[in-house]
Amino acid sequence: MGCVQSFRELCDRPKNTNVRISLPAVCIVWQTAMIILFGIFIRYDDDSDPHWIDDRKKTNKSDMENEFYFRYPSFQDVHVMIFVGFGFLMTFLKRYSFGAVGFNFLIAAFGLQWALLMQGWFGSLGPDGKIKIGVESLINADFCVASCLIAYGAVLGKVSAVQLMVMTLFGITLFAVEEHIIIHIIHAKDAGGSMVIHTFGAYYGLSISWMLYRPNLNQSSRLQCSVYHSDVFAMIGTLFLWMFWPSFNSAITDHGDGQHRAAINTYLALASTVLTTVAMSSLFQKHGKLDMVHIQNSTLAGGVAVGTAAEFMLMPYGSLIVGFCCGIISTLGYIYLTPFIEKYLKIQDTCGIHNLHAMPGVIGGIVGAITAAAATESVYGVEGLKETFDFVGDMSPTKQGGYQAAALCVAICFGVGGGILVGCVLRLPIWGDPADDSCFDDEHYWELPQDEESTQPVLQYNNHMRNKDVIETNFNMQQI
Amino acid sequence: MGCVQSFRELCDRPKNTNVRISLPAVCIVWQTAMIILFGIFIRYDDDSDPHWIDDRKKTNKSDMENEFYFRYPSFQDVHVMIFVGFGFLMTFLKRYSFGAVGFNFLIAAFGLQWALLMQGWFGSLGPDGKIKIGVESLINADFCVASCLIAYGAVLGKVSAVQLMVMTLFGITLFAVEEHIIIHIIHAKDAGGSMVIHTFGAYYGLSISWMLYRPNLNQSSRLQCSVYHSDVFAMIGTLFLWMFWPSFNSAITDHGDGQHRAAINTYLALASTVLTTVAMSSLFQKHGKLDMVHIQNSTLAGGVAVGTAAEFMLMPYGSLIVGFCCGIISTLGYIYLTPFIEKYLKIQDTCGIHNLHAMPGVIGGIVGAITAAAATESVYGVEGLKETFDFVGDMSPTKQGGYQAAALCVAICFGVGGGILVGCVLRLPIWGDPADDSCFDDEHYWELPQDEESTQPVLQYNNHMRNKDVIETNFNMQQI
Amino acid sequence: MGCVQSFRELCDRPKNTNVRISLPAVCIVWQTAMIILFGIFIRYDDDSDPHWIDDRKKTNKSDMENEFYFRYPSFQDVHVMIFVGFGFLMTFLKRYSFGAVGFNFLIAAFGLQWALLMQGWFGSLGPDGKIKIGVESLINADFCVASCLIAYGAVLGKVSAVQLMVMTLFGITLFAVEEHIIIHIIHAKDAGGSMVIHTFGAYYGLSISWMLYRPNLNQSSRLQCSVYHSDVFAMIGTLFLWMFWPSFNSAITDHGDGQHRAAINTYLALASTVLTTVAMSSLFQKHGKLDMVHIQNSTLAGGVAVGTAAEFMLMPYGSLIVGFCCGIISTLGYIYLTPFIEKYLKIQDTCGIHNLHAMPGVIGGIVGAITAAAATESVYGVEGLKETFDFVGDMSPTKQGGYQAAALCVAICFGVGGGILVGCVLRLPIWGDPADDSCFDDEHYWELPQDEESTQPVLQYNNHMRNKDVIETNFNMQQI
């Protein structure tokens, strides 16, 4: 900790938010690198290559058997979640909507390219040294990006676009390694990514936020809140995440019953979460009023928590139970845990990703382990059991349960460890991050329109003051 | 009516909007009940069960034959209509956007669970006493919920979340019975639910609103209007409803040409409605200006009105005619009928559901009856006629037309009767509904952000006044 | 030019924005005409006709082989782009959001009906004189409408709804002829419409804007800018266009690998564009701040530019290169070219469609020609080459490349020529367009809600002034 402390002092220099050189440089250099690497490594897979017609005629298959038709509708739903869902969910801050939706856009667009490469190198590198991509690769790239967008939630408003690009580069890299270990080495199943995406992403972001702790963040507390319309914008994000979550959890599961079941389970878990979130939000506020923060976030916890088990025989009532618990835990997290974590653990978590992704993600991993361990041939059928878990050799449900639990640990370790390392890098005083009193303010990174009335409370405040002075002056004069 | 009158007096006690006990209690108890009932009754259907693979191998079917791939894209579109469409359509009020989108979210999430049970008990209870659910059940549950969200439109801003939960519980129950009678007993067809969903839902809501009539609602008239940005938010709802309506009307129709035709008919009817709505809106306003209320609502009337006949041979020009008439009728309804109904029938219809759902729903029922009665083998083909209408025994198109008309009556009766009964229950002074001068105000049910400038006109008004005082003071002094 | 000049003088009469007669008349008459023409010409195609079941049983096909299942998810994505994408992209102006989203809605709803007829007459008129429509017709109608919505971008805020209707009527007509020449006569390929839709639409709009040049438009410059929330609304449009562009470019390509490849190429090109847009936006603004105009628009240029070549073997790295270049060119266009074009060429381009559609569209046409000319059997396979390019007779890739280039010229000629002609018509002083100081203001065509605070800067400005007077008065008095 002494080392960390001295490092912190080293970094305490006046802030300069001008990224006119660094941001374009990073974007151009990295995009150029992407083009070169794509040129060397990335090719179309069999289902998106013009030779597919030969294969189709040979095997007398229907056009419909192209993977495109199995996955594309789900892919588009996931795509909406990544860009509109995550982007708009973070627009709740009164003066950081541009940064929320704009930087989300930037890092997702970069991240998905890097993810195609990283996931390809680890997962689908052919004997010819080429990575073959198709619609499933695009979904996996979007998934990979999701973990970095989750991490963005923890540091929203406190970092520069350049830092976010660095965070995404390392985040995607770590994700690909972690995913490879969990899916291909441990052979755990994680359809909706409770562990791989949510647990990893949340701890990655929280660790970075811990490394970037700002003791004087209260200097910008006037901006760390919402206005009426920014809360409505955030609901757009919430709803698109909520509605399309069944597609997220079913997008890469087995064709047929696998996708079908994952969608049903997620649909039910999310419905259940909404009711317990409302209940807790009302119960723990004075006068029973609802808090938009809970409605925007905790209602999604159920989707996170059924991610791993969505394709298993969780049963409809099981999904409801998972959603029930997560709505309660997540909302209580916002009320009690977030202030505690900020005060005592020095983790400033802007969007409360600990409540929305970390805790439900861990719960999801545990639920997945239990559900896998409890699998039986009578419930799944002989063929169904093999198909669902991809059992090879002497694998058994009990073993699978253990592997699932091991996978959860891997996700947490990668998140915390990776986050601390990347946090060190991000503390370097070269990235153009804002000063403590300039956080949560679009002004430093965006050309803002001139609209004094609706969104510049400070100016308006001065204006009020001026009126007050006038009144006082009058009173003084009247006394004369 | 004397009884109703005395009951009304009984209910006139000071209002208390604190729902800190009742709302959490209702949510937790009902969600717990859902878990128990789901545990007893609900199971996966054949297409979402792991045993599906055995069936598939036996019959040498493609994975693509799973019902999931026929219905899932439509399901997701319907899902967006329910949560974003209905939710955002109602955000037009200047200070009730949280309640619109938030309570819509809550009652939809509850309603779909209850709908799965109710529709299962009436429709698909197996010999083992279990309800098997799949993607079509999810669509039907969303449909069922739609009727309650329509009803919400009539009482928007005037009821508490607890009342809405009660209204939804009974609404779903009534819906399931009504639907069972119409679809399974009368054997009427109603793909897009003009009768089952829209007519029922609208009259249910209007009857409740009649029972909850507030003579002094003008006390909150300052809040019963929109602001510029709230109207733009509402357009999000309008457009997602408008765009996805072809999916709504085709979601549960026959595979193949049935779904195809329903989508085309709805697409055309909606396009036609937009033009006549604009024409009427411009023609009946001074200076030919358009009214956002009409554009937000009446443009959707065509989709409601082709609901029943969408899968029939309505013909493309027939769809255009239906849309043409509904755009005119619905817009004129907003201009002339809504004020009339409020003044003389004592029905306060916040969103004008009478113009968007009731009238077009009834028209849709009639169009359906006529189109069914006019069906011939030369138009449909021998097989096509059987397939489209599911004819068994000695059924003929003429008979079918009569049954369709009977179904419309059933929908209206259930709506009006059920609404009056439920309205009685909701008049009990225990539900935490707001006082007359507190309607259309999120403040009583939501923790609101502090944004004086943009959304608290009253404060601003005082501020103006203060300036005026200052000026007057100055004048006075100058006179001295 | 002398003729144009005198015509201009003829048109300089006082403006009257009252469209109470003309707008309803146009809507009702044209919609009635649509009904009649649909009655005469439009019928369901084989896949949406009840006789389809006979065909299916005869050929032992699966229900899944219905064209509906190949195209419907893409259709819905395109539909969202047309209404929410284009509509919300244009809401960025502080006081023209109603007009942006509302008039977009109106002309799209009219345009798609007229497009079904026009495209049917040119493309699919059967031997019985009937046009058969199915889901692919709906997609093509939406595509056709897109070109008119692009043109709307150039004249946004400066024309009346009646002018837009006229512009759409002629635009759709010209489009259908141009498309027929390019696709059916020249046999060029243009899956995503870089030439057919974007190049034509953009030059059509720019030419009209040139004909409607307003020398004194700076009188309404106070309204030709955004406010904070209107920029966030515009991001909704941007993101839905960006996310669904892969569906746009793949919607009508060949089943199987064709759709698959088009989606992948578009996905990659768009991702690449985002990074170079951000780089340029930051590099050319002082302090390296990002400009929302670029993020909202230039990020989409890559999707336009891969439109033609999306279904070819552009290769993943090729898509990235196209996106890379277009992000740079489009952003620089906004910074340097738009002011130049306005000042020297007298073209006032409200949304900068020259940078988003015209230039990228032309690039797309060129990329398509090169990619087609470079096609080889070794890359596509023998069957694949035929299938991808629909080669008949002695066609070769080199010839195809030449035809593609010819097609690009046709699109530009139709755009410029058609735009000038239609611009002449729109200069007639009978359409209710606004005066120069009334542009970009919803007030003249919409009933506006009373929300002084948040969106009426002029009033607020007076208010400020009043305060200032008060202060000055006080000062005067204090001097006394």
From TrEMBL, chains A, B, C:
<feature type="transmembrane region" description="Helical">
    <location>
        <begin position="100"/>
        <end position="117"/>
    </location>
</feature>
<feature type="transmembrane region" description="Helical">
    <location>
        <begin position="264"/>
        <end position="283"/>
    </location>
</feature>
<dbReference type="InterPro" id="IPR029020">
    <property type="entry name" value="Ammonium/urea_transptr"/>
</dbReference>
<keyword id="KW-0924">Ammonia transport</keyword>
<feature type="transmembrane region" description="Helical">
    <location>
        <begin position="320"/>
        <end position="337"/>
    </location>
</feature>
<feature type="transmembrane region" description="Helical">
    <location>
        <begin position="192"/>
        <end position="213"/>
    </location>
</feature>
<comment type="function">
    <text>Functions as an ammonia transporter. May play a role in the elimination of ammonia in the gill.</text>
</comment>
<feature type="transmembrane region" description="Helical">
    <location>
        <begin position="358"/>
        <end position="382"/>
    </location>
</feature>
<dbReference type="GO" id="GO:0008519">
    <property type="term" value="F:ammonium channel activity"/>
</dbReference>
<keyword id="KW-0812">Transmembrane</keyword>
<feature type="transmembrane region" description="Helical">
    <location>
        <begin position="164"/>
        <end position="186"/>
    </location>
</feature>
<protein>
    <submittedName>
        <fullName>Ammonium transporter Rh type C 1</fullName>
    </submittedName>
</protein>
<keyword id="KW-0325">Glycoprotein</keyword>
<feature type="domain" description="Ammonium transporter AmtB-like">
    <location>
        <begin position="62"/>
        <end position="441"/>
    </location>
</feature>
<feature type="transmembrane region" description="Helical">
    <location>
        <begin position="21"/>
        <end position="42"/>
    </location>
</feature>
<feature type="transmembrane region" description="Helical">
    <location>
        <begin position="295"/>
        <end position="314"/>
    </location>
</feature>
<feature type="transmembrane region" description="Helical">
    <location>
        <begin position="402"/>
        <end position="426"/>
    </location>
</feature>
<keyword id="KW-1133">Transmembrane helix</keyword>
<keyword id="KW-0472">Membrane</keyword>
<dbReference type="GO" id="GO:0005886">
    <property type="term" value="C:plasma membrane"/>
</dbReference>
<feature type="transmembrane region" description="Helical">
    <location>
        <begin position="137"/>
        <end position="157"/>
    </location>
</feature>
<keyword id="KW-1003">Cell membrane</keyword>
<dbReference type="InterPro" id="IPR002229">
    <property type="entry name" value="RhesusRHD"/>
</dbReference>
<keyword id="KW-0813">Transport</keyword>
<dbReference type="Pfam" id="PF00909">
    <property type="entry name" value="Ammonium_transp"/>
</dbReference>
<comment type="similarity">
    <text>Belongs to the ammonium transporter (TC 2.A.49) family. Rh subfamily.</text>
</comment>
<dbReference type="InterPro" id="IPR024041">
    <property type="entry name" value="NH4_transpt_AmtB-like_dom"/>
</dbReference>
<dbReference type="GO" id="GO:0097272">
    <property type="term" value="P:ammonium homeostasis"/>
</dbReference>
<feature type="transmembrane region" description="Helical">
    <location>
        <begin position="74"/>
        <end position="93"/>
    </location>
</feature>
<feature type="transmembrane region" description="Helical">
    <location>
        <begin position="225"/>
        <end position="244"/>
    </location>
</feature>
